[in-house]
Amino acid sequence: MIHRSSIQAPGAVVVIRPHHFSPNQETASDNAYQRSAVGWDLTVVAQAAYDEVTMAATTLEEHGVTTHLFEDETTETPDSVFPNNWFSTHAGGHVALYPMYARNRRKERRQDVIEMLKQYYRVQDVIDYSGLEQDNIFLEGTGAMVLDHIDRVAYAIKSNRTDPLALERFCTHFNFEPMAFEAKDANGVAVYHTNVLMCIATDFVLIGLDMISCPDRRQEIVRRFEQSGREVIALSDQQVANFAANAIELQGATGRLLALSARAYNVLTLPQKAIIERTVPLVPLHVPTIEMAGGSVRCMLAGIHLSAR
């Protein structure tokens, strides 16, 4: 197995541990992967989510991934467990803050997280796009965009959460090429976040190809990945629905790894796992309660692509 580092795989992450987790009613209308908690004991749900984040953070630390764990003790931010939507970090010391579609998600932005980044990492500037919310323009971070840090391409599904204007502005500031496309699930519903459909690692890509609406765009995307030397692992709609693409490559103590949920791990086929494990081990994390909210491991981990102080 290759143990080289890669700019695609951050060695540190921010994780938010919620004390009052529940699926967010404000995001249910356009997130087909979300499950209702009606009839559930919300105290039990919240405790289970708290325990899942605790265990996930411990597992990542055991693998040598630096994990900055923050607490969310408020009751106003049910989706706070998904910090990758409100900020991202970039080589050269750049941080971006994003405009959020759901009003109650806008409260997730936290100054203490940004201050921690400035304390432990080299931060040159913070570019704040959140003011675009006033104009109903949204771009939900590395949920809306899946970034190829090697080839400098920002892949983005057109949706309520991804405005082409904001995408263009981000790409201009951060030196990415925008690659926008349409994607729908088996019921014809637009996929709400790109990171549910696609995971870009250093040597491979997990992607729900059949869900990309335009055949020409689909071929173009595959061609781009193959030209970059990556193996394209096509996922079925059913695998995507079980969060098989909502994974993230990280840098651990002994090399790179792929963090994904136990549910995602269980729906990957043996041949698919074999391709992945040629270059990285799979690290499944048990997060079934959090997945009720329509996101999984990738959404839970905000990667830090900054140089340590």
UniProtKB/TrEMBL annotation:
<dbReference type="Pfam" id="PF19420">
    <property type="entry name" value="DDAH_eukar"/>
</dbReference>
<dbReference type="GO" id="GO:0016740">
    <property type="term" value="F:transferase activity"/>
</dbReference>
<protein>
    <submittedName>
        <fullName>Amidinotransferase</fullName>
    </submittedName>
</protein>
<keyword id="KW-0808">Transferase</keyword>
<dbReference type="InterPro" id="IPR014541">
    <property type="entry name" value="Amdntrnsf_FN0238"/>
</dbReference>
